[in-house]
Specification:
heterotrimer, A mainly alpha (519), B alpha+beta (89), C mainly alpha (331), A: 519 residues, mainly alpha, Ribonucleotide Reductase, subunit A, two-stranded antiparallel sheet, 4 strands, 58% helix, disordered N terminus, C: 331 residues, 14 helices, 69% helix, 0% strand, globular, binds fe (ii) ion
Chain lengths: 519, 89, 331
């Protein structure tokens, strides 16, 4: 054999094929169905895994090189931020509350994504799909860890960020993101990818990571914007995995189309509900505003989604069922959600406040059809109350939607004055929902959603006290016992921003008077 | 026609990439949300390695764009010489 | 915006997260490894059972027979979190690129004899698939194991295995035409000497207990395979016959093996020290799988090292037994 002295360099595609696809073999000592037991029960028919497209053909050499570069840059910023007490450079300590929501609500999802991408990265029969999922698994671990490291510095100086893991497993509003993600994780591998990679990452996460992170930059938080954009730089790979998986399913067999459409309907709505928390952060929790929730929705969802679904129409896929209602909601959900957190401000581990005059003016300008008409009067009333020493706190526990687990706060389509309620009967019990779409999701899979660990039910059943607590003891205060179970530091983590320890500390550290703390 | 877009962190590494895209795609438009550069183009958009190399005067591996890439829309195709985004409608 | 701090003392209210402080105290800041890893896996109030495994919760200790009061004891002595892992690997990758340049600039591949080059390909190319099995199995350990200290390094290890498979692939492409990869796969699928090893790998792919899988893959199989191939075959055999290029282009593997062995041994040691039941379980798994691995590697050892193969393999086995003894498992 002649030694090939000057071999032609393989192109990216051939090289990638040799580096990944070529590693696979069909097993014979163990049946393939036993080696890959999980990717058939959902009914998705795959005839030829070789048709899977790998758009970003990353091999481990390039992965390590570029990810290593990203990490060096990111940690340089995180270190500098901590050394320079960068937390004092943010616009206003109210801003930190958005980070509390992020750390307790979003960061734990990254961890779950890491583990479940390891699962599907092991279980797909197709090699290309497996490798893409495995890379995403370590990317998601990266996101969990970099967010934790970046926000760790804030935890040292501000309240409400001390127990993100513990809170995510217990606290009532955090069951919204937790149940959303666990719903995806407990689904089959194809539904998991449709839920997370397509519906969430491709369709919706731009709204979290792009305008919100721009907002962080605008508010002087260089640490958060750096981890946000750095995490998002992995996202283009993840989004591409989502759309490629979707196209692959649709191209493999026409029988897959209705299954996939059902998942798109379900997961668009689940994701949309989840993002109502981001809507609130965007419109109410960034002292310096960049873009309203509505503007972000129009730019990243409406325009982009139109293009996407026009493109998918050739497979027989239409827009998700909840599309029209979600687009109507762009004028409402941030206001409705923030109002709930304001009124349940005693039961949340972050601070809320009445928007200031110029912030209300901004909201009026950005929401000309809805803010003054539906939401401003309530704020004026609550502001008056607070001025008179009567800051409003809701004391009863809310009824939750069995599917999305958000309290019943959302209004009827076409009527923003009427709260929507829906219900279904299943095996002799009644279940309650916030919307037609949440009801439909339940009705399609009741055996799954009856399992939901609904925080309010759990409190009533006495399952939310620390072990050893005796509810029959004299003077037992159930609410305080629940807060203790949550690890809330009552009076420090919760209640209004006005008068909070965060507010006082921030002002003292900056040398401002408390009144001048807000700039 | 639908727009595709590609978004980068607004920093020095991204500059030649942005310039190359604007040079190669006559219809592309750049906007600058805080911290970002967003380029929109009707229908499709291409990032060419050679153009970037001309601008920086040294070899450039297209996979390097991952370091500063923030998000994209459209279907993607990538080889050693170019990365393209397009909608099929 | 710059902030005038004057001489004001800015005292932190706390040094780390509650769940981290539980392990490391709150009197000083925790390390990045600790914050990234300790007690970070969700553990309570799961909403739904996995439709793919309704017998278990998403994260469930009962997927393995090993019992630990707290799975956070299984620390990685390398203290890898994503950044340190990926930066360490990027550095090794750089070194490998320099090796490639060196080999290319000196024409080292062309200087190898056909016999040596063919032997290297014959032995090493099928190992791409063994590494791929290691990738799948460590993905399983990450997915179905319990607790981030145990599962996070398993995912790094899975990707390291993919890296190893890709280094071998690149080696094949450097030594020969792409068809050499197909030849290696053909041997893997059909040549008699590879079948016991392929059976071993396929049998591990269906193991359900993540800790048993950890022993079978990372300790028993890799603990024998890597020293046999990279120390005995590549370094002592091929390199001495003019195959320095092969040693240089696979330099990552022995280095990575030595490094990751510290993690593997630490996991075994900490699990075994917790109870006699654990120790017995690990011992039984180890005995079964190391015996099988040794048998499966025998024809490979002979293919690689001829008459010296079985002796070399026995030496490797003795070294593995010593390694296990240090970790508290006496075979
Ligand atoms: Fe992520
Ligand atoms: Fe709902």
């Amino acid at each position: 054999m002649d030694t090939p002295v000057l071999k032609k360099k393989l192109g990216l595609k051939e090289r990638y094929a040799a580096m990944t696809r070529g590693l696979h073999w069909d097993t014979t000592y163990q049946p393939m169905d036993k080696v890959f037991p999980y990717d058939k029960y959902e009914g998705i028919k795959i005839h030829d895994w070789d048709k899977w497209e790998d758009p970003f053909r990353l091999t481990m050499d390039a992965y390590w090189k570029y990810q290593g570069e990203k990490e060096k840059k990111l940690y340089a910023v995180i270190d500098a931020f901590a050394q320079n007490n960068g937390q004092l450079g943010v616009t206003d300590a109210r801003y930190i509350n958005a980070l509390k929501v992020f750390l307790t609500g979003v960061t734990p999802l990254e961890y779950n994504a890491h583990r479940l991408f390891a699962h599907v990265g092991r279980q797909f029969t197709g090699t290309g799909a497996r490798v893409a999922c495995q890379m995403q698994s370590i990317d998601e671990l990266r996101h969990y860890q970099t967010e934790t490291h970046a926000l760790s510095h804030y935890n040292k100086y501000f309240n409400g960020m001390h127990s993100p893991k513990h809170m995510n497993d217990r606290v009532w509003y955090l069951s919204v993101p937790k149940s959303y993600f666990e719903d995806a994780c407990t689904s089959g591998p194809f539904e998991f990818l449709t839920a997370v990679s397509f519906s969430f990452e491709y369709l919706l996460t731009n709204l979290l990571f792009v305008p919100f992170m721009s907002g962080a930059a605008h508010n002087g938080d260089m640490s958060t914007v750096t981890f946000g954009f750095s995490a998002q730089s992995d996202e283009s790979r993840h989004m591409t995995l989502g759309i490629e998986c979707l196209k692959f399913m649709l191209e493999q067999d026409p029988d897959n189309v209705p299954i996939v459409q059902g998942w798109i309907d379900k997961w668009f709505w689940r994701g949309y509900r989840l993002l109502s928390i981001v809507a609130m952060m965007q419109d109410y929790m960034l002292p310096k505003r960049v873009m309203s929730w509505r503007e972000g929705w129009e730019m990243y969802i409406e325009q982009n989604g139109e293009s996407l679904f026009r493109d998918l129409a050739r497979y027989g896929i239409r827009k998700p069922k909840g599309w029209v209602q979600a687009c109507e909601g762009k004028n409402h959900i941030s206001h409705q959600t923030y109002a709930v957190f304001y009124s349940y401000g005693a039961a949340a581990a972050f601070h809320t406040w009445v928007p200031e005059e110029e912030e209300m003016a901004w909201l009026s300008e950005k929401y000309p059809e809805t803010f003054e008409k539906y939401y401003l009067p309530r704020w004026n009333y609550w502001r008056e109350q607070a001025k008179n020493g009567n800051r409003f706190y809701q004391k009863t526990l809310p009824m939750l939607c069995q599917t999305c687990q958000i309290p019943m706060i959302f209004t009827e389509p076409g009527d923003a004055t009427k709260i929507a309620y829906r219900e279904s009967d299943y095996q002799g019990d009644k279940y309650h929902f916030c919307s037609d779409h949440c009801k439909e999701i339940f009705d399609n899979e009741p055996e799954k959603y009856v399992q939901a660990w609904l925080p309010v039910h759990q409190i009533y059943q006495g399952n939310c006290f620390k072990p050893g607590v005796d509810p029959t003891k004299e003077g037992f205060d159930p609410l305080l016992a629940v807060f203790d179970y949550y690890n809330f530091k009552v009076g420090r983590d919760n209640l209004d921003f006005e008068g909070s320890e965060d507010q006082k500390n921030f002002a003292a550290w900056r040398g401002d008077s408390v009144q001048g703390a807000k700039k | 026609m639908s727009n595709v877009f590609i978004v980068f962190q607004d920093n020095d590494d991204s500059r030649p990439i942005i310039e190359a895209i604007l040079a190669d795609n006559a219809q592309a438009q750049a906007t600058y949300p805080t911290g970002l550069v967003k380029i929109d183009a009707p229908g499709s958009l291409v990032v060419r390695r050679e153009t970037i190399e001309e601008l920086i005067g040294r070899p450039f591996d297209l996979q390097q764009i991952h370091v500063n890439l923030v998000t994209i829309s459209g279907h993607i195709d990538e080889d050693d010489d170019q990365l393209s985004l397009k909608w099929n409608n | 915006m710059t902030v005038e701090l004057h001489a004001r003392e800015i005292q932190p209210l706390r040094n780390t997260f509650t769940h981290t402080a539980y392990y490391v105290g709150n009197d000083r800041p925790a390390s990045r490894y600790q914050e990234a890893t300790l007690d970070v896996q969700p553990s309570d109030n799961f909403h739904y059972r996995p439709t793919w495994d309704p017998e278990h919760e998403i994260y469930d200790k009962s997927r393995t027979k090993i019992k630990l009061a707290d799975w956070n004891v299984l620390r990685d002595p390398r203290q890898y979190y994503y950044a340190t892992w990926t930066i360490a690997r990027a550095r090794q990758q750089d070194a490998m690129e320099s090796n490639y340049e060196f080999v290319q600039s000196r024409g080292l591949v062309a200087k190898m004899s056909d016999a040596v080059r063919n032997k290297a390909c014959e032995v090493l190319m099928p190992l791409r698939h063994v590494a791929w099995g290691g990738n799948m199995n460590n993905s399983s350990i990450c997915a179905y194991g319990y607790g981030a200290p145990f599962t996070a390094p398993a995912m790094f290890h899975a990707m390291d295995h993919l890296g190893a498979a890709q280094f071998i692939t690149r080696l094949g492409l450097a030594l020969d035409e792409p068809a050499v990869l197909d030849a290696g796969k053909n041997d893997w699928l059909n040549a008699a000497c590879w079948q016991p090893l392929r059976r071993y790998v396929e049998d591990t792919l269906v193991l359900q207990d993540p800790f048993e899988l950890f022993i079978a893959q990372n300790l028993a199989l890799d603990g024998l395979l890597y020293p046999l191939i990279y120390d005995y075959f590549v370094d002592d055999h091929i390199a001495l016959q003019g195959g320095t290029a092969v040693a240089m282009l696979t330099a990552f593997m022995p280095e990575w093996h030595a490094e990751s062995a510290r993690w593997i041994d630490a996991v075994v040691k900490m699990a075994a020290v917790e109870s006699d039941d654990n120790r017995q379980l690990i011992l039984a798994w180890l005995t079964t799988w190391a015996d099988r691995a040794q048998a499966a590697l025998s024809p490979v050892a002979e293919l690689a090292l001829g008459n010296n193969g079985l002796t070399a393999l026995q030496e490797v086995r003795d070294a593995l037994d010593m390694r296990c003894k240090k970790a508290g498992i006496v075979v």
